[in-house]
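Researcher: Go.
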Amino acid sequence: MLASFNQFIADLSKADQISLLKGSRKIYLNTGDVLSSPTQQTTKIYFPISGSIALFIGNQDKLKKTHGLAVGLVGCEGAAGLQLAFGFAESPFQLLVQSPGEAYVVEAAVAQQLVKRRLQVLLKVSKYLWTVYEGIASFAAKAYTKDVKSRLAHWLLLSANRCKPDPLQLTHAHMAKMLGVRRSSISIAAREIKLKRYIHYTRGSISLTNVPALEVLSNS
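Model: Structure:
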């Protein structure tokens, strides 16, 4: 079934897949779409088929410009808003579409009923949420202990992994917003990485040409 393109759903039994997707719909994700925020909560869980959704923490200034940084990224391996399956309606994150694609939208009530009835689904949701929160802790640490080049390398690797096999489409301005730094800082870091031939980019299209070197840089 089409849900196999989302790994979280594909790992469920066929019966649980059918139960979870009952009444669901498929939507297109546009870059920059805000799916939910601390001030605009949702009752929907998003299971990406392609593209990616950032877990973004930030606030608006007097000019209504949003400042903050991303502390997680969800692609076709998982789900965004999955805490709703446990009835936790409030979230400190803004669900912000980073890369365009498609996603299944499931109402929280459907997931809650499935978690109550199926122990295996309960365990699956719990394990996934734990990995998400481990990732958030890692992102928070990197924001204070790593330089821009290291953080950019990590974000590019993660973004490519979440979006594969689709090409990576990211502008310098968007990466700056995700990492909570100035656009000029991203431009300098990206140029240095490009000159080392770790990446190649043109007009927002990025290809990773030396993944092992990027992995070393992301951990330096």
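Model: The chain has a mean pLDDT of 89.
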